[in-house]
Amino acid sequence: MMADLTLRQQSILGIVIRTYIATAQPVSSKALLELSGLEFSSATIRNEMAVLEDLGYLTHPHTSAGRIPTDKGYRYFVERLLGDVVLPLDERKTIRHQFHQARLEMGQWMQLAATVMARTSRGASLITAPQIEQPILKHIELISTQPKLILLVLVLQGGVVRQQMIALREPMDQVALSQTAAFLNAQYTGLNAVAIRSKSLELSDFEIEVMRIMVGLMSSESHHAADVVRDGLTGVLREPEFGNQSDARALVSAFESPVFLNGLIDAPVGTVQVVIGGEGRWRELSSCSMVLARYGTEGFATGLLGVLGPTRMPYDRAIGTVRYVAELMSTMVGEIYGE
Amino acid sequence: MMADLTLRQQSILGIVIRTYIATAQPVSSKALLELSGLEFSSATIRNEMAVLEDLGYLTHPHTSAGRIPTDKGYRYFVERLLGDVVLPLDERKTIRHQFHQARLEMGQWMQLAATVMARTSRGASLITAPQIEQPILKHIELISTQPKLILLVLVLQGGVVRQQMIALREPMDQVALSQTAAFLNAQYTGLNAVAIRSKSLELSDFEIEVMRIMVGLMSSESHHAADVVRDGLTGVLREPEFGNQSDARALVSAFESPVFLNGLIDAPVGTVQVVIGGEGRWRELSSCSMVLARYGTEGFATGLLGVLGPTRMPYDRAIGTVRYVAELMSTMVGEIYGE
DNA sequence: AATTAGCACTCTTGCATGTTGAGTGCTAAT
DNA sequence: ATTAGCACTCAACATGCAAGAGTGCTAATT
Lengths: 339, 339
Known about the structure:
The structure is a homodimer. The first copy, chain A, is of the alpha+beta class. Chain A has 3 domains: 75 residues, Arc Repressor Mutant, subunit A, CATH 1.10.10.10; 155 residues, GAF domain (Beta-Lactamase); 85 residues, Enolase-like, domain 1 (2-Layer Sandwich), CATH 3.30.390. In chain A, 47% of the residues lie in helices and 19% in strands. Chain A is built from 13 helices and 11 strands. In chain A, the strands form 3 sheets. In chain A, strands 3, 4, 8, 9, 10 and 11 form a 6-stranded antiparallel beta sheet that branches. In chain A, strand 10 and strand 11 form a beta hairpin. In chain A, helix 1 crosses helix 4. In chain A, 39% of the residues are buried. The structure holds a DNA duplex.
């Protein structure tokens, strides 16, 4: 399927892809010759291009046009021609600097990660908050807001805070609430949702209600709105491939939809995954590519981050950035969540 | 400036606008005649249309095309021809029902409000969390996450929760933290940021640091990312006026930008404001209109909500929905925040 | 056997031209 | 005040033509 190409073919394929990524114009044999500095004539290039087309790495939009890469071409490029892309030292430095300047807070970091990815890869970027598999309860608080309305605040491992209002049938004062909270803290702190539910205790009706709500809040449902940060949508709409309305809409729609998010690739932490042209799974994203990575601590708390752009995306920069940002976020998560 | 029109002119203007909103096509004198059921000839309509054009309420894109409304035309339509638009009873019922089924939580409500507005007005909708002017501190909590890392959780009036991690120079255990928290609670609960800062106390270095951070968290900065919920961007991109790339981008860009949000109209609670064609203030939104309202309790806690769509938007539905959702949200806020 | 010069061929792009139909604006009649 | 009627304008579409870009192939060259 992905046969070996001669060195010259590789070099030609590489140049076609790089120039097409840069210019969005089909690359002609003559243009390639000028850019490459190869010591051949345009006819030779043409012959090689024809071979690459037969093998499925290139196409041309019409008879008398230059060549553009196919999805298979991009795939070969990413896997065989790119090698290990590393972001230049100075860029890594600026990024790390920004992270260390930010406040010690997940939301800030996510925002920052999204901004950095969007800027360096000219794609739309997106990052989900790390999901803790079995979050452990750190602290419960019950606060009286109004006579018959209280606020339940849960602090989970890693400083995740969940909250919910509870309406009461009859008023309770803060003293009674604090007592209940103290009791629940004593019983449940240090446990996860499963352990809390299965622990059998003598509880009042009210305590049972609170316990139920706690368990609900601790069980990681699907992503909540606040748990995803996005950036760079405007930038990616500037690309010529989204000149037509329906493609642009498909992109925006997929980018915003939670369904899309939940169906995303399930790669392990530490690897960068590249999805080219929707790759069968997302039909409406046939002209888009994604570069994705999982970050955090495997088996404990992980999130997803990456960029979405046209198939004609600068893969080297995107992969480099995504990898580096994922590494940074992983260490951040490690620091906050502890071992 | 906005002279009185004859009844017939009003009726013609109204029909032109309504049909243009429905079809996105210039309205010709003949087409209007068929739709209106008026007992005149097309020539009469043409004459009246010419007058309306002279007065600035209509234009036509080229000589032999039908008429389309100008911004001034829309303005007249909204202010003089629409009257008090009220959403049909059954729609109001479904919406209210949805709200009462949702959990007792601001985030949920905002999400719901955004969805409802997007659906009924085919525009992009947006809602900001209610900003409390001078939030009062309800509760402080200090939780040890790791030996040298603690989490500060602040509960403010109305169940707003703010949090921040604090890195310590030397370890503190939970007992010491709870003591500090209890002390700070005793001193500061019930006060607002200004009062907290100006209260002079004998404080340790650590307590001073915590107090500073508290004051920071309580002072309402500009909108945080999580404080805005959006919906319906995809739908609005379906409209023909956003067929060209740059207009679409301008819309998306404005819709996402926090700068735009902060500069939005400052209307009092209870009124619905209609901004047509950017109205000078937003040049890049010249083909967009907004229908906005403030909700909450004036002088205490208010947020902004509304829809953004093409100038060719269904103003009646949009205004009706925005008004009703704003009312609902206001009562919700009232319930939660108390008097 | 690999490379290349050269040429025929294809297809886009741009421009000019003509035609049709929709719709207006105006004038003169009602 | 209204309207019939007609001249006029303009977008939209089709057609034809010329230029240019680029390929594919063949035959000559290294």
